[in-house]
Amino acid sequence: MVGRVDLNLLLTLETLLNELNVTKAAVKLNSSQPAVSAQLVRLRRMFDDPLLIPGARGMTPTPRALELAPRLSELLDGFRALVQPDHFDPRTAQGSILIGTNDATQCRLAKWFGNLADMAPGVQIGFVTANRSTVPDVEQHMASGQVDLVISRRSAFPDRLHVRPLHDETFVCVMRWDHPYRKKQLTLKDFVAMRHVIVLPLGGEFDDVTDEILKEMGLSRQTVVSVPSFLVAERVLRNTDFVSVFPTSLARGMMSTLKNYPLPYTLPKFEFAMAWHVRTHLSPLHRWVRDQIAEELMVGREEDGDPMSQIAW
Questions:
Q1: Which fold has domain 95-169+270-310?
Q2: Prediction pTM value
Q3: Where does the chain hold its CATH 1.10.10.10 domain(s)?
Q4: Which parts of the chain span the membrane according to its record (predicted)?
C-alpha cells in the first residue's frame, strides 16, 4: 500500500489543509477545481475519513485530518529537503517570510532590514503584530501559512512547535529627558504618584502585570493613557509628564528622547524565544533567516552594553 501512495495526492492534502477551500487550493496547486475535488475523493477513500467537511465559510478539518496535518508536513518537508540543493546561497534565494512579534522587537530589528536587502535581495520580510488574541492560536496560524515565525514569550508556545531561546527581557521606567522628576533613584511612592501610559497589544485596557504586582502590595497607580504600540507611547511621553514601563532593550534605543530608571519593584523577567512550525523547519531559507534574526537580536544586546550604565539620573 505504501508503494502505491501518490505523492501528488499528499501535496494536495497539505494544500487543502492549509487553505480549507478547494478553489484556493486549486489556484495554489496550479490545477483546476474539478481536479482537486476528484483528488479529495481519492484522499477520503485512502484514509477512510471525510478529512474536510464543507461549511458556509470554507471547509472544516476532521479530527483525523488535524492529526495527520503535522505528520504530513514533516513528511513532505523531508522530501523537499531531500531534493533541494545542499548549498544555500542567500544572494540567489527567492521567497517571503511572515514574522509575528510585537512592535518593540520590530524596532530592534529595524537596522537589520538594510543588511538583509543586501545579503538576500530576493527575500521579502513581512511583519504582523502578535498579541494575546493571536499567540494562543499560533500553531494553527503557522500550519495554515498565515505566519511563519513568531517571536514572543517562551511560555506562550505549545510544546509541539520548534523553539529557540533568544534572551531574557527586563524592564525600566521611562520618561522624557526634561521631566520634572530629578531624583537619582525612583522610589515606589513616587512611581505610583505619577501618571502612567501603559502599552498593551490590544489597547483599550488599563491594567497590566505591574498593576497586579502593585495590588498585591496594597497599592495602585493612575493610568491615563492605554495604547497598543510602544512607538505611540514614546510620542506621548515626549510631550507630557507621563511615565511608562518599557522593555530595557527598547529603552536603550530611545536614549535620545527618553531617560530611564530601574523599577522600584520586582517585575519578573520575560524569556523571549522564536518559534516555528514543522512546515518550515527544514527550509534552508527559513533556517537562514532564523539564524540571522537570532544573531541580530543578540548582537544588539551586546552593543547596547550594560543597561544600568545608560540610566540618566
A1: D-Maltodextrin-Binding Protein; domain 2 (3.40.190)
A2: 0.69
A3: 2-83
A4: none
Least Cα distance to 122 among 78, 148, 84, 88 occurs for 88
What is the C-alpha to C-alpha distance for residues 181 and 204, in angstroms, rounded to an integer? 27
User: CB-based contacts of 63: which residues, under 8 Å, 6+ apart?
Assistant: none
Angstrom distance (rounded) from CA 57 to CA 21: 9
* Nearest-angstrom CA–CA distance, 105 and 96: 19
Nearest of 123, 125, 170, 183 to residue 149 by alpha carbon: 125
Cα dihedral 278, 279, 280, 282 sign: positive
Domain with CATH 3.40.190.10 in the chain: 95-169+270-310, 171-262
Domain 2-83: which topology? Arc Repressor Mutant, subunit A (1.10.10)
CA 99 to CA 145: how far, in whole Å? 11
Sheet holding 171-176, edge to edge: 222-227, 195-199, 243-247, 171-176, 258-262
pLDDT per residue rounded down to tens, the chain (313 residues)? 445 668 889 989 988 988 888 988 888 888 889 999 999 999 999 999 999 998 777 888 999 998 888 888 778 877 776 766 667 899 999 999 999 998 888 888 888 888 999 999 999 999 987 765 555 578 878 877 889 999 998 888 888 889 999 988 999 999 999 999 989 899 999 999 999 999 987 767 888 999 999 999 999 999 999 998 999 999 999 999 999 999 998 998 899 999 999 999 999 888 889 999 888 888 889 999 999 999 988 765 544 443 333 333 3
Give the separation between CA 72 and CA 78, rounded to whole angstroms.
10
